[in-house]
Amino acid sequence: MVILIKKILIPIITFFSFFALGFNNSTSSNYKSDIVVKGITLKVSLIQTAYELYNVNVKNPKEFNEDLYKSTSYDAYKHYIWLKDTYNDMDDDLKNSLYDIFTTNDSWSYSNAVIGLDDNSSLEDIIKTILNDDYLNLSPSFCKEFDNFFTSFYEDYFKSYFYKNKATYEKKANDINNLLASKKVDIINFIESSSGLDIDSGYSYTFYYSLNPIESQGFKSNKKLISTIPKNTPYKDIISIPLHEFSHIIFEYFVNSDEFLDAYEKLKDDKKLTKMYDKVGKYAYNYKDFCSENLIEGFSKFLNYRYFQGVYEENIYVYDLDFYRYLRKLNFNPQASSLKDVSINFLEKTLNLYP
């Protein structure tokens, strides 16, 4: 069963807002990669690109417009032109089916159903898996429409485009994997030594390149964390994403403790938090998890600072930047005080929860 890391497509530019000034990495002599980058696969890109087609042409054309793609990269702009030309070439039946498919379920739900398939899964494997997914529970008439749309979309438009780009993404994935190996990147060891807490053995992070140059999706299957990433994702962000996601595992040690549950209740009176939660947070988190996310993101910023010697200047949530600065000011050392105690102290002193 694959479950949600973030059940939303997130513009990749909002993940990491730091300026890299330097670079340090793990020098463990017993190097074992816990990060693998893979090229484009049909199981990822078929659904994501169909959704992007819908998003750019139907759902949100004002936001996902020509200027956005143009400002991302020249390749992104060419991809935008393909999305526009493809949609304009479709007949009305295909356009109507595209609308039906993504108003019935979101892109993540379809992708979630197939993310655990073999990387070489065929069109038939993908369609069959989605149509038989218990969670999606699709009606017979919708199954027929879904099958017809993706068969036509693949054969008439997507197949040639996918294979035209496949070799380029394979090379890029190989280059990144070689770089990770040459630098002996060991994210889990780094997080454990920085937090004073252990991550259970068996965890790994897999990245799949996506044809979508703007957005990314995340999944979790048992101890395997998965993210899709655009072609232009910098090396430092490929490190930063697992620094954040593995931090969730670290915080699970204490975010449900009595002290934190008490803090969450008091934070319901925090106007800044509740305003952002009502505006964007409630679509992806319950309030408790949204409060925790502020600390987790702040800690992952601190990990990035330690790893890259970077400097952060922007919030993603409300208090993540403040927590990052608090950890820096303390020069946080898990040998001197626990991450749990430091987190509680931050809530008490910075947010005045306990006057």
Structure at a glance:
This protein is an alpha/beta fold. The chain has helices spanning 42-59, 66-72, 74-89, 92-104, 107-114, 123-131, 140-182, 187-195, 235-251, 258-267, 271-279, 287-308, 320-330, 339-350, and strands spanning 2-11, 18-19, 35-38, 204-209, 215-221, 224-229, 311-312. The protein folds into 2 domains: 35-229, no CATH class; 254-353, no CATH class.
Please outline the helices and strands.
Layout: E1 2-11, E2 18-19, E3 35-38, H1 42-59, H2 66-72, H3 74-89, H4 92-104, H5 107-114, H6 123-131, H7 140-182, H8 187-195, E4 204-209, E5 215-221, E6 224-229, H9 235-251, H10 258-267, H11 271-279, H12 287-308, E7 311-312, H13 320-330, H14 339-350
Parallel strand pairs: 3-4, 4-6
Antiparallel strand pairs: 1-5, 2-7, 5-6
Helix pairs in contact: 1-3, 1-5, 1-7, 2-3, 4-7, 8-9, 9-12, 12-13, 13-14
Give me the Rg, rounded: 21 Å
Whole-number tally of structural domains: 2
Shape: globular
Average residue pLDDT: 89
Pairing-aware structural class of the strands and helices?
alpha/beta
Main beta sheet: 5 strands, mixed
* Major sheet strand order: 1-5-6-4-3
- Low-confidence segments: 1-31
How much beta, percentage-wise? 5-15%
Output the helix-strand order: EEEHHHHHHHHEEEHHHHEHH
Number of helices: 14
